[in-house]
Write a structure and sequence with these properties.
Layout (H helix, E strand, L loop, with lengths): L6 E10 L5 E6 L10 E4 L6 H4 L5 H12 L3 H6 L7 E8 L6 E6 L11 E4 L5 H9 L37 H14 L3 E6 L19 E4 L2 E4 L32 E3 L4 E3 L9 E3 L8 H4 L2 H4 L12 H7 L2 E7 H5 L1 H14 L9 E7 L2 E11 L4 E3 L9 E6 L12 H7 L7 E3 L8 E6 L10 H8 L1 H10 L7 E2 L5 H14 L1 E2 L2 E2 L8 H20 L2 H17 L5 H11 L4 H10 L16 H4 L3 E8 L2 E9 L4 H10 L1 H7 L6 E5 L3 E5 L1
Parallel strand pairs: 3-5, 13-14, 15-20, 16-18, 23-26
Antiparallel strand pairs: 1-2, 1-4, 1-7, 3-6, 4-5, 8-9, 10-11, 10-12, 15-16, 15-17, 15-19, 21-22, 23-24, 25-26
Helix pairs in contact: 12-13, 13-14, 13-16, 14-16, 15-16, 15-17, 17-18
Length: 661
Amino acid sequence: RNWIGKSEGILVKFDVLNFDKQIHAFTTRPDTIYGVTFVTLAPEHPLVELITTDDNKNHINNYILESSKKTERDRISDVKSISGVFTGAYVLHPLTNIKIPVWISDYVLAGYGTGAVMAVPCGDQRDYNFAKFFNLPIVNIFKDIDISNEAFKEKNNFVLTNSEELNGLDFKKGYLLALEKLKKLDKGIHEINYKLRDAVFSRQRYWGEPFPVYYKDNMPVMISEKYLPVELPNVDKYLPTEDGNSPLGNSANWAWDSLNNKIVSNKLINNETVFKMELNTMPGWAGSSWYFNRYMDPTNKDEFASKKSLNYWKEVDLYIGGSEHATGHLLYSRFWQYFLYDLGLVPVKDYAKKLINQGMILGNSAFIHRLNGTNTYISNELVKEQNVQLIHIEISCVNSNNELDLEELRKWQPQFKNAKFEFLNDKFIVKREVEKMSKSKYNVVSPDEICEKYGADTLRLYEMFLGPIEQAKPWNTAGITGTFSFLKKFWNLFHQNENFNVVNDKPSSESLKILHKTIKKINDDIENFSFNTSVSAFMICVNGLSSIKCNNRSILESLCVLLSPFAPHISEEIWNKLGHNESISFVNYPECNPVYIKENNVEYPVSFNGKLKFKLVQESSLDIHQIKQNIIIDQRTNNYLDGRGIKKIIVVPGKIINIVC
């Protein structure tokens, strides 16, 4: 909603005094029409130059020049600065015909809405601040509501006043009546507005798809489709040219010969048959917004994908990306897919059946406290009510107990060599905080170092073990020893006293049960992308097989294949040790045999009048009548009955027993 910025309201028409012109201002609050005391235009508004009086021209032109130096993002984000200039012009209020001054200010954007704002200081904080700063009138249209310190921005809990026929109405009724009155006078039009604007489909860089466009008489001309693709030329420099043109301007061969229909040397440009090419390239999302469709027919030289291929594949089964995809790539790619769908070029509106956004791995940042205005740093426990500033430091300078290694800190950055550090009990404790892993926060954990010390399989398993795939997960290097120990236990299943030791005996029923329960769990978890619980299941399985000293080949081979997608390196090595020459990645994945996981016994909770008293283990093959007989003859039943008779025995097979007495 915030990105596309859909808003519903009314386009209000203000007649410009002494000009046959109107200023249109979009508002979502027509109920506040009687609170309008000035109109503000964007500095770039086309009417500014026309309506500005001679006395105000210099001030207006200077302000427009200063505003042009700011980016649109700067203008949106700068909510504290207040600036503007009076044009000297007036508009007429659409309902009262009262003269209203017209100002310009850079908080109004030409590209959003109409580039004009009907200012209601009593109901909008930015208008309120502007009116206070320039001593403009503020009319309170909210009955019995104090606006002496700030604007009233709510849509509820008010009735209108100082609003003629709208007096006594709430937001909804006031909205509808104001809309009706403005439409009747031809001073308002119901409208839906969007903050989303056209995106610039062009980049001043080398890497990107070149535009198949050349310029004739300074007008762009498309190169015919039959001469595509136009490929990037070779350049020696990937930076912009010395005169500020895009990097393609560095190419000596980037001109279009319209007679021979090919790229030629720039020296041949005569603007009659040979013309200069477009120097900009397409943005990254030009290719990334539809590549999945091209994958369906990658060798097709006539079209991006044939109807036959598109109808066969239709869409992607699963699309996985990071959180950054959700705000960029996914928006653009859906726009493209919808566009292609509307043109009848793809068979489905949405290109993926399922979408998963992976959560971030978060870093555990370290901070030290600096007393403001000094070069003194104090331990975390010493911080009370002092005015301190938190400074990020490299996490390698801190041990697992959050104690600072001062010598390492000074080696890391010389600026700390002359700093003063105040310890508590000979220890300097840092503050820790979980936040996005970033070089600027000095909290990045190098995967290379983890792999060097523990191995790539340990890193893979630990990342999966941290939590659900879609959640952000804080990294803690100390926890990696758990998955490292698990892999050592898994290795030890195949070895005894460092010698490979696997036997071909018939597997025990217990080992088969442990294995096939794990197979079922892992297959279910893979379907649900619950990789963290998969790792837990592997740990339980290895502990179970270790406890019964299982070294049976058929059990361990299946376990090895089961683990291979999660820990491919150790699995591949063991698979080779088991005597297989083909890679483990080509082996069929194990499937659960329900015969092996069937429970022989069931543990029933036994309740008396709904209150649990004891548990009774029964064979799963027994019927309800046999279970009732066994519960009656159990000595504990007589003890809890305490002389009372049994009115009814309720047995839910495989779940509970309840005795009503």
